[in-house]
Specification:
Low-confidence stretches: none
Number of helices: 7
Order of helices and strands: HHHHHHH
Distance between the termini: 65 Å
Radius of gyration: 26 Å
Oligomer: single chain
Largest sheet: none
Length: 116
């Protein structure tokens, strides 16, 4: 099956004697390879977080910027994240004792944090 697909692709190709072969990188208009273009190609179609400059270029202390970055990336060590890894954790949010502690709950929906 694949053999026939390759055959169809190469059917119209005419090789010329005396013309040296060339390596062309299809992801660059010039046809030359660069590691930056290869790296960018790994992220084609991925969702980017455009306001990252607002976090890292702000005047906030570094530990605040780092915490905000972790919160946006869902990397804060909450009980929900600990549970996914089978690590010991509390059954409910230690502040409100109503729901499981997740990043969203801790920062947005917890009754206690909303009052603060």
């Amino acid at each position: 099956m694949e053999y026939l697909q390759v055959w169809d692709l190469l059917d119209g190709v005419i090789l010329q004697q005396g013309v040296p072969d060339q390596f062309r990188w299809k992801l660059n208009q010039l046809g030359s390879y660069s590691s930056k273009i290869a790296y960018d190609a790994c992220f084609v179609g991925s969702i980017r977080f455009p306001p990252w400059r607002r976090i890292w270029k702000s005047w906030a202390p570094l530990h605040c910027k780092f915490f905000l970055w972790l919160a946006i990336k869902q990397r804060i060590w909450t009980a929900g994240r600990l549970a996914k890894r089978g690590l010991p954790h509390q059954a409910a949010c230690p502040l409100c004792d109503q729901e499981q502690e997740t990043t969203q709950h801790l920062l947005l929906t917890c009754v206690f944090t909303r009052q603060c």
